[in-house]
Write a structure and sequence with these properties.
This protein has 96 residues and is mostly helical. The chain has one domain: LysM domain (Membrane-bound Lytic Murein Transglycosylase D, Chain A, Roll). It is 48% helix and 8% strand. The protein has helices at 2-26, 40-46, 51-57, 86-92; strands spanning 30-33, 70-73. The longest helix is centred in the N-terminal third of the chain and has 25 residues, at 2-26. The relative contact order is 0.14.
Length: 96
């Protein structure tokens, strides 16, 4: 009887640990490291979001950001994707 109880306790602890560990991957936030020349505006356009939503997510007053600063990029409609440079893609696909 005692061994069944401890087996159930160990199983519960194991699955709790696994669920906590996995939730970190399932709900990981998207971050962006600020590069030279970037502004909140340019970063907001890259991720199809707004300056205000990035500022709010990072508790930024105004628009001051620093090179190397890590910014949380808030999700919009459950998904965030960086825009690609369409003109670069078109240039690569041209046939001379």
């Amino acid at each position: 009887m005692k061994s069944v109880f401890f087996k159930n306790v160990k199983t519960a602890i194991f699955f709790t640990g696994v669920s906590v560990f996995c939730s970190g991957f399932l709900f990981a936030e998207l971050t962006h490291t600020v590069q030279k020349g970037e502004t909140l505006y340019s970063i907001s356009k890259k991720y199809s979001t707004t300056v205000q939503s990035i500022a709010d997510a990072n508790k930024i007053d105004g628009t001051d950001i620093k090179i190397g600063q890590k910014l949380v990029i808030p999700e919009k409609n459950g998904a965030v994707q960086a825009k690609t440079n369409d003109s670069a893609l078109k240039n690569d696909s041209k046939i001379d």
